[in-house]
Amino acid sequence: MIASKKEEPIIEVKHLSKQYSIGMDTTYKTLSESLTSAVRHPLKTLKDCRRQNDTFWALKDVNFKVERGEVVGVIGRNGAGKSTLLKILSRITYPTEGEITMRGRVGSLLEVGTGFHPELTGRENIYFNGSILGMKKREIDEKFDEIVKFSGVEKFLDTPVKRYSSGMQVRLAFSVAAHLEPEILLVDEVLAVGDAAFQKKCLGKMGEVAKEGRTVLFVSHQIDMIKSLCRNCMLLSEGNIISIGEVNEVVDQYMNPIFYGNDNVSFNVRENKNIDLQILEGRVISKSEEICGIFDVFDIVKLEITYVVQKPLIGSVVNFEIRRNGSLVALSFDTDLNNSILELRNPGIYHCIITLPHPLFKPGHYTITFNTGIINSTTFQRLEEIICFEIQLLSQPSSLLSYADKRPGIIALPVPWEVKNISGV
Amino acid sequence: MTEHATDYELVIRPKYGLLDINWQELKEYRELLFFLALREIKIRYKQTIIGASWALLQPFFTMIVFTLIFSRLAQMPSDGVPYPIFSYSGLLLWIYFSNALSQSSNSLVDNATLLSKVYMPRIFIPTAPCLSGLVDYGIAMSILAVMMVYYHFMPGITILLLPLIVFMTFLLASGIGYWLSSICVKYRDVKFALPFFIQLLLFVSPVIYPANIVGENLQWLLYLNPMTGLIGAHRACLLGHIPVEFVGLAISAVLTITIFVSGILYLKSTEKYFADLV
Predict the structure, then answer these.
(1) Domain residue ranges of chain A, discontinuous segments joined by +
(2) Which alpha helices (H) appear in B18-156, and where do they start and end?
(3) How far apart are CA B36 and CA B104, in angstroms?
(4) Which of A94, A247, B71, B73 is the most exposed place for a label (fewest CB within 10 A)?
């Protein structure tokens, strides 16, 4: 009898859809806000009312099955619907359509340290956090020593958590979560925090979880982490499953620039005269000035943008953030080496080419976020992860190089070593 | 363990049903309610000098101010008992009710991360502050005990009603809390309207004055406020100076249960949006 049950998939998702409405400043409203905005911008308010009917599907007709004991990675760009999927599976929000059957106890870990209170001691927070995650007091009692040992904060157990360093807080919180024992574990991007050593320890713990035969659904931007933990993977884009299957195949598809299309190597923004300094278009180009989405570590990568200034601006900056596999690598201001435009930027249309230093960037998935604004005060425009490109190591055999994808470290820095044999033999 | 676990099956569907209370789950998570209440108690007086003494000082000084103003200056009647003990016996329950109500109503918004990052029975969040407030009520009760000795009051057999009255007040505060906290997730106006509402409610509750100060023909109006019956009965069962007004208590009971049950239903019907809105 049990055997027949075991053949059923542990998670079964059928025609799952989730709709959100976008009148997005309606996240919450006070009466007075509605009134003042109606008085100030009567037209806009009318439009907003009409637009309330605008909706978008965060997930659209998603179907999949997960077998008992599988560890499945979930990847996709920001806004692909990964977190929404996890939130629905963990019953935090409800689907608009569809049905999910889960044949096992579910534990979810969407954030490390939910419910941690800074005034409470480490000991108190372990109990509280554990019970929020669905553990019974008896279970926590049993695992208490193990949790404390794993976190390494033994000495500070009776100190309020607000006196902890942020690293210690994360360690304690993760230790509680790592000792959850549900049959289905849903994990969202939580390992992105903490120092490298602790991350490694957590990965080990997650690996153990998988070996114990529990089912894990794991969302991450860090492809290498997905590769090392999961055998299967699903790729989401715009609320749909693009592909599901063996991890390397799916990851390859994710990394393939064709998957992104031209949308992600160039962009256009409609001009808005109310924005004093606005980027209108941009793209990523190669040495020969062609739009390109994939580069070698030793290739030149250039960014090209056009922006418009509506009125003379003092203290304005244009900047970009560059992220590798989701984590910030660097930030650059256009005023870094050019003080005169910080003092005054005259109206007009500007074109600029940014040549990224090279070789510097390790293989990985890179995104660029552009911002414009007044330094240290206002943001005019933020184009979040508007450009994506890949850097790969194609020109050299990768396995022996220090900056191969799998080696630790975040930048590729071919350093000259002057080596001499001085023994004279 | 595994055999037991294989039987476990959970189906998630879009939520349409109004009455969809999973009792099994509430039972499974009951420890969490206790932990939530315990957390409230533990953090309430952290980083204060006099700590839990605040639970004594608040009703005590209110009683003194009320006595000076309403008894000395306004010559307020007090059912023939000394005004300090009269007002304190009402204040005790009132302060529990108003603190529980205001914390409960803000609880869902204040615990936004609990809504958007973990699953648990949402109903526990506005219930917890009403439970933890009982500790303050217990502490403040000690002053009443001292006053009763001082003024030579001996509670009669009706003291046995006290747990029931306190429990009803708990249900009432939770019930209104369910309504207001759910509304507050969408409309933060509640945050601003609530202190004002509680203040007004004090003046239509017999804390400062006895209920019979209002003429016979208008008294029913006063009893529309469920706290009227509760405060009257609370005072009468403790001091034994007048018989407990059972009709008033019954009216309160009906109103309380109506508010409590409708509150649960309202919270249950809106909770699916909480994580998207908060």
Answers:
(1) 60-258, 266-392
(2) 23-28, 30-44, 54-66, 83-110, 112-117, 124-150
(3) 12
(4) B73
* Å between B18 CA and nearest CA of chain A: 14
* Chain B contacts in chain A segment 91-150 (CB below 8 A): 91-106, 108, 110-111, 114-115, 117, 119-120, 124, 127-128, 131-134, 136-137
ipTM of the complex: 0.82
Predicted confidence (pLDDT) at residue A243 exceeds the cutoff of 70: yes
Architecture of domain A266-392: Distorted Sandwich (2.70)
Please identify among residues 384-403 of chain A the ones whose CB lies closer than 8 Å to any CB of chain B: none
Q: Per-residue pLDDT tens for B1-16?
A: 344 445 678 888 887 6
Q: Do residue A128 and residue B276 have CB atoms under 8 angstroms apart? A: no
Name the minimum distance, in Å, from the CA of A200 to any CA of chain B.
Answer: 24
The chain B residues in contact with chain A (CB within 8 A) are 3, 5-6, 8-15, 29, 31-32, 35, 38-39, 42-43, 46-47, 111, 113-120, 185-189, 192, 272, 275-278
pTM of the model: 0.74
Choose the mutation target among A13, A55, A57, A94 for the interface with B, i.e. most B CBs under 10 Å.
Answer: A94
Closest by alpha carbon to B97, among B267, B270, B256? B256
Q: How far is residue A56's CA from residue A22's CA, in Å, rounded to a whole number?
A: 7
Nearest residue to B181 (alpha-carbon basis) of B272, B111, B252, B95: B111
Q: What is the mean pLDDT of the segment spanning A365-393?
A: 88
CB neighbours of A90 closer than 8 A, spacing ≥ 6? A106, A108, A110, A186, B118, B119
Structure-token pair, residue A52: 């309330």
C-alpha to C-alpha distance for A107 and A133, rounded to whole angstroms: 7
Candidate from A99, A108, A115 with C-beta closest to B119: A108
Cβ distance of A92 and B115 shorter than 8 Å? yes
Residue with tokens 């609990």: B114
Whether residue A24 lies within 8 A of chain B, CB to CB, comes out as no
Residue A195 confidence class, pLDDT cut points 50, 70, 90: low
Contact residues on chain B for A133, CB-CB shorter than 8 A = 118
Q: For residue B121, give the 3-state DSSP assignment.
A: coil
- CA–CA distances in Å: residue A261 to residues A125, A163, A253, A276, B113: 47, 48, 12, 31, 36
